[in-house]
Amino acid sequence: MIEKKVSEGIITRYFEKLNDCLDLDVAIVGGGPSGIIAAYYLAKAGLKVAQFDRKLSPGGGMWGGAMMFNEIVFQEEALDIVKELEINYTPYTDNLYTMDSVESTAALVYRAVHAGAKIFNCYTVEDVVYKEDKVSGVVVNWTPVLREGMHVDPLNIMAKCVIDGTGHDSEICRVVAKKNGATLNTTTGSVVGERSLDVITGEKMVVEGTKEIYPGLYVCGMASSAVYGTPRMGPIFGGMMLSGKKVADLIICELK
Fold first, then answer.
1. How far, in Å, are 12, 45, 99 from residue 60 at the CA level?
2. 249 burial type by CB count under 10 A (0-12 exposed, 13-18 middle, 19+ buried)
3. What is the pLDDT of residue 77?
């Protein structure tokens, strides 16, 4: 009967976890490093947080470094975060450091889950719950269902705050603006669109652009660059980590 117990254990524990996450403090959309960092700090502060990533392996582009060279660079400003997460790093030059991309990404995921965040992989957020001109949750479906074009209705998960951490596409901000006629907190009232690479400016602006962009909806990481029309920054990840911590701090201040 062990075969039955194996299946029972998976099904029972999975749906206990999912049922516990139907009403959240924070729902994070996208599995990139800024969102995982946010999940870590939010969970550490005692908030109920879940992260939804359409891919099998959360971590976004951090796994592959640049062109599959699995070393990444971060700057001095993010060193405290790296130390807190106990990731090995090596000083390089001009206040820059390097670290192994595989170790770093694995550490981010482990620390977030160990702090209490729940990560649901193979989930796509296809819409938001929109009530009284406020983003109040997310609408989720299985990624394979959407890829196959199957007509299967989604489920909704309620949340006090939603973070768009979907990267270059800023998918959630686009949905909110397009489907609801919402005016985002940008110069155009909508998603401006990411500019070409400028590391110094991009690193600064990705953190500055991390904020509440619409009631109940926050943006972080590359999604903030796309929303506000600031430059991308390439394979340097200090801004990603600082952005994740900033959005967590903003929401902790709001909810606590």
1. 29, 24, 16
2. middle
3. 97
